[in-house]
Request: fold
Amino acid sequence: MVDVERAAARGKRGSSRVSEEGAGWSCQEIGTFQALRPNEDSFSWLTPKTLLRSRNEILAQLFGDPSNEVRRRWVAARTEQGVDPDFRIKPDLGAEYGFLVVGDTGEGDASQYAAVPGLLAIGSGTAFAVVASDVIYPTGSGNEYDDKFFRPYKDYPAPIYAIPGNHDWYDGLGGFMRVFCDAPPLAVERRGFSLSPAGLRGLFWRKPEAVDETRLAAARARRSLPGQQAAQPAPYWVIDLPGLLLVGIDTGISGTIDRDQGAWLRRVSADPRPKVLITGKPIYDRNTYHPCPIEDGGTVDEIVRDPAYNYVAAVGGDTHNYQRYPVQVGERIIQYIVSGGGGAFMHATHTIPRVDVGGVREDDFKCYPLRGDSLSFYSNLYRQRLRMPWLYLTPDEGLVLMSRHIGNTPPRPVGTGDDTDGAAGTDGSPGSPPIEAGKPVKITMRMKWAARILGGWPMPFRLPVGRTFHRWFSELSDWDTPPFFKSFLHFSVQDGVLRIRCFAATGCLPQEIDPPMEDEVAIPIGSPPAPAGG
Reply:
């Protein structure tokens, strides 16, 4: 079992908040994750086939999201099959334990596998792991779980539970329910055509894909050890832990929950123990607030904020980076966390404005990658894709630009880069611009315009750069070379304290050996009650 305290201390000293090397910029040796990959294929959103298979997202926005209706059918079927009506999972654990949370994993390419070695090292000795959103891209098919779930986590010795993300719902949740709940497919409902929104949606809706049971059985064999086995009761659940409840909800495609799930959430939340919510969509993200509506009225965040329910944190996937918002709610602070950096392409952080949502101060907000590293990374990506060398911003330039724009102190000392000869550049590829150590940074007009195009500097006139052009450009881009800026969470309960640590994966060998710790928060939760009797 890894000594997490020592690993955290080493990781803190080697993080991106300390040096460019900790961010993976001076990557001289690629990590061992390359040997874990099944092939050299790279997942891409640019193919017409991928976009066509993912059309249910657009159809749900245009004609309504059927997730609530379909989820009720899945839950009714599970209830008929005799599962616990509270959908409770109860591991046999002592008073001290740990578990992992990793979000948005399933691309099956370099960016996913780059996070695996560090996750296995830090996760050694943990009781279980949870995938928080988007287990499988692009459509959650049960036929794609081998290389995107069973193979990457074959050496993780404990059970893995999950909550579905919007991409898992593009398959009608069929693949997810078959793999995680061992549930047979739902009976096909045949309806006649109508001119209603639901009828128009049905004309183009991608139907669930039949699972190849032989192929799935071969994939399951990769995680066949007794300690790895787990069957969760439903797409939403509660994990009953000593002194803590972990509550997972299913937010479908559009980020809402149905009335039955809302009633269940209120019921299980009445337990007085401290709780952590795991949700497919974050409640705070990019300095905006998404309370998650409940079908019969109210919101999920109203439940989280109610002191009677005693939530101490809410963790959501869907956005592919790490963010933490410590929100003051009455006399309590609730940690709202985005944890979607487990495998898919990285969503930019440099387009996040100065934080003030929910009364959170900018200096109390944390993100990974740092805004400056995000700006530098995307400047190099744009430089390559658009063949415009002048767009490139060094990590130091990105750091200084973002700190000037946001109005904060650079979160890393400027001038911590390593001198290189350009043989291995900032993205690990030949010919990329070298990093210069210790060079003073003076903001120039070229730097400002490069940052404007990248959405990291104010425009003198209104253009939809950051929220529109850059957002879609980044989503349609992918890369197979470090740094990847992936991350996962390690939770530990010890001596009445819940610690949440964010560890990073850059794809570079030094960060595989000692994963950087990018953030840490300690939450007092009290000691679990002594067992009755004896």
Q: What stands out?
A: Residues 249 and 265 are 8 Å apart (CA to CA). The two ends are 30 Å apart (CA to CA).
